[in-house]
Structure formats: structure tokens, C-alpha cells
Design a protein that fits this description.
This protein has helices at residues 45-57, 62-75, 77-85, 128-141, 145-158; strands spanning 36-44, 118-127. By secondary structure, the protein is α+β, with helices and mostly antiparallel strands. 35% of the residues lie in helices and 10% in strands. Strands 1-2 form a two-stranded antiparallel sheet. It is globular and about 55 Å long. The chain contains five helices and two strands. It has one domain.
Length: 185
């Protein structure tokens, strides 16, 4: 909230910064160095195509993309950025994008529907601790691990709000409101 009310033309104050590095949350990620475990799940072909596009654009493996998504889901982007800043690249993508690709005309063909079957088989190796943490969250939601991971990948890939109204289940759409402001909440 420190900069919320600062005007654009006011200089930024750095007196509140104790260090130039991200401080992180203090969690111990040494458990993520140990034994690896296979994580198997199914995704819609459209998500597979999106993951292929992302991994090609960033010159990395799809496994790196999945591991980074899962890390952010479990432990947050703040700690990921802190690890990367400390040259800990366990959950980094291999490289920055080297080129730009214009959006293709086939994007509409790859949009999944909420009814699309998950038919693309994925197997990614993750630290055992990460798999255990995902299993804990899946149990809390009352779903199988593969179903939980699939929902995380879909959410991390497409977000919470469908980018195409046809993708949204009418039961999950927010009600229409004539209220223009945000004061009602």
C-alpha cells in the first residue's frame, strides 16, 4: 500500500528497501532437491497444443513449464522470483524468448470446451515433496491427484475466466449486474 497513493510524477522512495534482493517468505526449499517422483495426468489436446507453443517460444521443455506452474501454484511467484534472483534455477525456464511469434489464425481451433475430453497423456518428474504437497491439496478438495493437477494446469494456462464465453459453463458464470461501480462488495 506504500505506493498506492503516490502520484506518477513523484520519485520512488527506496528508503523502505533493506536489501536489493527479494526477501522471500522464509520457506525451506531444500526438500525440493531430493528424490523425484513421476506425476501423471491427462489434459485436453488444446492445452497440449498451448503447452507445446509455450515451450517452443521459450526454448524450454514442456516439463519445465509444468514444474514452474506447479511451483507457483504451491509456493507462489514471490518465492519463485526470489529463487531465480539467487541463481537457483531448479524451476526456471531454460531461456528467455529469443523471438516473437504473431498470433496464429489457428488459435480458435485450439480453444478447449468445458466438455472436451482429456486425452493427452502427460508425465513429468517433480520433487517428491512437491508431489506430496499436491496430494495434500487434492485430498483437501476431495479429488484425485491427476484431476487436481489437470485443473491447476488449466487454470495456470487459461486463467479463471474463460477467454471465450462459449467455454464458460452457464452455471459458473457470474450474474449479470447493472451496477457500474465496485462499491456493492
Amino acid at each position: 500500500m506504500r505506493f498506492f497513493f503516490r502520484k506518477k510524477d513523484e520519485p520512488k522512495s527506496t528508503s523502505h528497501c533493506r536489501t536489493e534482493m527479494i526477501t522471500m517468505t522464509g520457506r525451506d526449499f531444500s526438500d525440493l532437491d531430493g528424490e523425484k517422483a513421476a506425476l501423471k495426468f491427462w489434459i485436453p489436446e488444446a492445452i497440449e497444443a498451448i503447452m507445446d507453443e509455450l515451450s517452443s517460444k521459450y526454448d524450454t521443455s514442456e516439463s519445465d513449464c509444468y514444474r514452474q506452474m506447479l511451483f507457483v501454484h504451491l509456493y507462489g511467484r514471490y518465492d519463485l522470483m526470489g529463487l531465480l534472483e539467487r541463481q537457483d534455477h531448479r524451476f526456471a525456464l531454460n531461456a528467455i524468448p529469443l523471438y516473437s511469434i504473431a498470433a496464429s489464425a489457428t488459435t480458435a481451433d485450439t480453444e478447449p470446451t468445458h466438455m472436451e475430453k482429456s486425452i493427452a497423456d502427460v508425465k513429468v518428474w517433480v520433487p517428491l515433496k512437491m508431489k506430496e504437497d499436491l496430494q495434500l491439496l487434492a485430498r483437501r478438495k476431495g479429488v484425485k491427484l491427476s484431476q487436481y493437477v489437470r485443473s491447476v494446469v488449466m487454470e495456470q494456462t487459461l486463467g479463471h475466466i474463460p477467454y471465450n464465453e462459449a467455454l464458460a459453463d452457464p452455471a459458473t458464470r457470474p450474474p449479470e449486474s447493472s451496477d457500474e461501480g465496485n462499491d456493492s462488495e
